[in-house]
Amino acid sequence: MMGWSLKLVESAEGRIWWAVDEVFDGGDQMVANGARRYYQEHFQTAPSLADSRSILGSPQRFAHYTLGEILATLPAR
Length: 77
Fold this sequence. Notes:
By secondary structure, this protein is of the alpha+beta class. It is built from 3 helices and 2 strands, in the order E-E-H-H-H. The protein has helices spanning 29-42, 49-52, 59-71, and strands spanning 2-9, 16-24. The model has no long low-confidence stretch (mean pLDDT 89).
């Protein structure tokens, strides 16, 4: 399980432009599938389901995936 609580704040006025509080549970099938797809696209050259499951046991790689999902929600400039 990995959680993020982030805010993008304008320093002059303290206005919050973007905020997220999210927890990713690797035991949830949709999260696990997303993490495995991410692993296949970013961490290896020959995709394999058996190898892609290792992302769920690697805090660093799982954090990589979850942070990518979070940052994808940032608004456009």
